[in-house]
Design a protein that fits this description.
The protein has helices at residues 2-7, 22-56, 61-84, 86-95, 97-112, 114-130, 139-167, 179-182, 188-212, 218-221, 227-255, 263-287, 290-293, 298-347, 363-372, 388-395, 399-407, 427-438. The chain has 441 residues and is mostly helical. Helix content is 72%, strand content 0%. It has 2 domains: 18-338; 358-438, Cytochrome Bc1 Complex, Chain D, domain 2 (Orthogonal Bundle).
Length: 441
């Protein structure tokens, strides 16, 4: 911990109580994040699959119909993802405000760009969805719309992931020079590619379930695709996603910085990996069963995915806790020391300033000036603030105006720092200070 203290900035925390018990906030964070990330996966994965299918649909009309059907679900999943994202965002802000906001500040303008990027991406998905027939004869433009939307959808999670990763490594903060610098920190890219693979895998399972419904009128929508072929297509997409996710998950485990790794984290992440292997096995086995047996393992696949999400969310929180635990102890210690010194300063008896009576009628004003103004103002040249001679030129016939300015100053000069106000200074002290300044020799 001593080494951490020397290498890492340790700021003071905001001494405010949490709005609820910490364990309850952590539970809310994990549970709400699981539901949020599920629909984010469906939104991102659905847009990727739609783009792929529509490009393939240039040669095979059935894939264009398939793309249209998946595109209808993107805007719905998007809306649910946004609503469900409020709770985990508020929870992580409450639990890790110091770390989350520090990461946001370090990534600067890119973090602020999330809102306009999300807005543009959402508008493009609606434009793509509702111009399907209108742009039937201009497929390249129509594909371009969803292509831009997919590009934005791929970038937004990278921003979030980079920030959440950065907040766990305060020892790296001093070396970070913006968002693109933070992207080079350990584990960002393996986690990102694992996330994308998960989006495709969960979307494949969703496509299977979506086309499995008896109420879904496959025969009326498609000409050449049967329900069985749509199920196979969903499972094929899922199998591809699971396979890549297993490989990238192994890379994630071996590239995790050691400071947050513990036996618990390894056990939970290992369990999540086993669940993915089982899901991949059941999906590939189902693909060999033919129309009669393709539904055999669907319940198992859904259960494995659900349990994987629980393990995934749990392991993230465990790693985050381990990674920040020692730094949080230092911050707590620093905050307590600051509060102790602050209380001592506020309750200590105030010493009256020593006034040099040899300066006659300006004695008190000179003392007030030295204690409050001399650090920023010199006689003939600008320092932090303007020179005293300039102040005399402005207020020589307006002492009341100078008093008002000292109490509540504004900002007149773009090249100078705004002066802090002195609202607590008594009228008597203001008069003495003003008299001294306007008669400065």
């Amino acid at each position: 911990m001593i080494l951490l203290q020397y290498q890492t900035p340790v700021p003071k925390d905001i001494p405010l109580a949490l709005p609820m018990a910490e364990w309850l906030l952590v539970t809310l964070l994990i549970v709400s994040f699981l539901f949020h990330i599920l629909f984010v996966n469906l939104m991102v994965g659905g847009s990727i699959v739609t783009l792929w299918a529509q490009i393939r649909g240039l040669k095979d009309k059935e894939y264009d119909i398939f793309a249209h059907e998946i595109a209808k679900t993107i805007t719905v999943n998007k809306s649910i993802a946004v609503v469900l994202g409020v709770a985990p965002l508020l929870s992580i802000n409450a639990l890790y405000a110091l770390y989350f906001y520090s990461a946001n500040a370090l990534t600067g303008s890119i973090w602020i760009m999330i809102i306009p990027l999300v807005t543009v991406a959402f508008l493009l998905t609606y434009l793509h969805k509702y111009t399907w027939e209108y742009l039937e004869n201009n497929k390249k433009l129509h594909i371009g719309i969803i292509g831009i939307s997919v590009g934005i959808f791929l970038f937004i999670p990278l921003i979030f992931l980079t920030n959440v990763n950065l907040m766990m490594f305060p020892e790296k903060w001093e070396g970070v020079k913006g968002f693109f610098s933070a992207m080079t920190l350990p584990n960002v890219w393996p986690r990102y590619f694992e996330f994308l693979a998960g989006c495709v895998a969960i979307t494949g399972v969703f496509i299977y379930g979506y086309n499995r419904r008896k109420a879904y009128r496959v025969e009326e929508i498609y000409v050449g695709f049967s329900r069985y072929k749509l199920k196979r297509l969903g499972y094929t997409i899922a199998a591809s996603g699971f396979a890549v996710q297993i490989v990238t998950g192994i890379i994630v485990l071996f590239t995790l910085p050691s400071k947050g790794v513990g036996y618990g984290v390894i056990a939970v992440m290992g369990s999540a990996g086993i669940l993915l292997v089982l899901a991949l096995w059941w999906v590939t086995d189902s693909l060999t069963k033919g129309p009669v047996g393709i539904d055999l393992h669907f319940g198992k696949v859904v259960t494995a995915v659900a349990l994987f999400l629980v393990a995934y969310g749990g392991s993230r929180q465990m790693y985050r806790h381990n990674a920040l635990d020692k730094h949080q102890q230092l911050v707590k210690q620093h905050t307590e020391e600051y509060q102790k010194h602050s209380l001592a300063a506020r309750t200590a008896p105030k010493e009256e300033p020593v006034i040099d009576e040899s300066t006659g009628e300006f004695a008190k004003g000179e003392t007030i000036f030295k204690n409050n103004c001399a650090a920023c103002h010199m006689k003939d040249q600008a320092l932090v603030g303007p020179a005293i001679t300039e102040m005399i030129d402005i207020y020589k016939d307006d002492p009341e105006g100078m008093k008002k300015w000292i109490k509540a100053p504004g900002k007149k000069r773009a090249n100078m720092t705004q002066m802090p106000g002195f609202p607590g200074m008594s009228d008597g002290d203001l008069s003495e200070l003003t008299h001294y300044i306007l008669n400065f020799q």
